[in-house]
Amino acid sequence: xxxxxTAAVVSIVLAVAAPCLAEKPDSPxxxxxxxxxxxxxxxxxxxxxxxxxxxxxxxxxxxxPMTVKVTQELTSEVTVSKPDAKGIKKMVLAFSRVKMSxxxxxxxxxxxxxxxxxxxxxxxxxxxxTKVVMLVDEKGRTLSIKGLDxxxxxxxxxxPRMSRFTxxxxxxxxxxxxxxxxxxxNEMVPAKPVGVGAVWHVKTAQEVPIIGKAxxxxxxxxxxxxRTAAGRVATIRFTADLKTTGGGDMGMGGVPLKISRMDLKQxxxxxxxxxxxxxxxxxxxxxxxxxxxxxGPNGQQQEIISNIVNKTKxxxxxxx
Length: 320
What we know:
Blueprint (H helix, E strand, L loop, with lengths): L1 H9 L2 H4 L26 E15 L8 E15 L8 E14 L2 E4 L3 H5 L3 H10 L1 E6 L5 E5 L1 H8 L4 H14 L2 H7 L16 E10 L3 E17 L2 E14 L12 E17 L5 E17 L5 E18 L2
Antiparallel strand pairs: 1-2, 1-12, 2-3, 3-4, 3-5, 5-6, 7-8, 8-9, 9-10, 10-11, 11-12
Helix pairs in contact: 4-5, 5-6
């Protein structure tokens, strides 16, 4: 259970561990230069995130390593309203498909029968019923998010044990992950205009739900800026080192389980329309080590170190 749960946790690291906005680039790059900012223009969109996580763990020196591979696809439909007189837009996000593959588990929400064959189906059904309503200001900052608490509460109805777990997740996660999903590009762009070849570095420290205090040192580069019929398309390439000091309790069934530490190297790219601010693609590859502190029957803790390889690709497509 611990391996499967932590493999799922790693899949959200892309969202929660991105570097913050750089004050200025180390080098401005060539002319012409553009100010890069993410924006969701009014309209309808489809957001698809595909994640593949491989986790190899040796529970003890006497046992051979065990490798678990988890793949997950999450699709959502996003509708963005026109801004009101104050420049505030309403965004409504509805999850339309969940697909997961793991040892002993094959589930796809497009096949209702697969949801009934596994207890995981009862967990994912509330996700498919969830509508998240967000208010975003003219600078792209998220002002409020509603709908996630109801999703956690609905998940918790499957059993008393699941209720305790989902209440922990609701308290620790809040709306953090959703805020980061909306800012796939904003955390990786410089504060001033840049041209091709511009490089900027960012080092941040922040409290991240579940995984604890994270420090991220990153290097970003505006790799290309191409003119297309839809506008100028920019590609930002980045590398980053992520380290954490441990997070909150994820345990179920009375067994304490914590992410004690995480050390990952990341590399990826963001593709965005520099004129409209629309991000169309965000990819990241991650590799490193993850520590899990598992509680024993007498209160003692054992740290299990696992090797993690994670690939995540998010695409956003305009539908209208």
